[in-house]
Design brief:
Length: 267
Amino acid sequence: MWIITQALMVLAMGMQLTGCTTVRHQLGRVLISDETEYALGAQLAAHIDTTQTSLDNPNIQRYVERIATPLVELAQVDRPGATYRFTVLDDPTQVNAFAVPGGFLYVYSGLIIAAEDEAELAGVLAHEIGHIVGRHSANQLASQFGIQLLSAIALGEEASKYAVDIAQMTAQLSSARFSRDDERQADRYGLRYVVESGYDPTGLVRFFEKLGALEGGKRTSVETLFSSHPATEERIRDIEARIERSGIATGQRNAQRYMRETAVLRR
């Protein structure tokens, strides 16, 4: 009760000072500590690791981590102390990536195949990192399943008792539909990380446009990314406007290296 009372006090104070999105994040930090979020994420990641197939290619895994490294370093400014683990899942039919509370990020091999250069993949990874920085996954699960259940799972007590809940949560994360505010905030974090790391900031826009063209054809799993992160025209225009205001519309794409490093997935 004390925690909830304190949270409501933070919420009331925040409403006088800032917008709804920031208030929600402040409330999330009070209700779910960083330690609880990481412990919860570790439980959910353990379930994902046993129910999905990780790509058996350490070179691809290291390459994805190398692209993500400068993005993570920049994200530390906005959320100091957060740790990140990237895992490539082996499913060439899934064009998707998702973030699990506590900094566990997953990207399907199908998304890596769909991208054509490092800037496109960096844009997607930076967006997912933005969801971790904004605590969006944790807040969404708290809203849907409740703080008490999340805390119980985080403590790791009677894991078998919560097996169904854990399965539902991981399914929710891989196909989560975030609010417009969450998606916009993740875009803005991600765009800044991409620009400051030297990648071409238009990579994410190109990737969305490419998937949009594919989605317009036959129905495939390409739609998975759109169902979880709908690339609306509004979002794309917002990203493009921010790129224009930044004055940095170009950067590294490293297309040849990308195709060489990921060629094994296309064979």
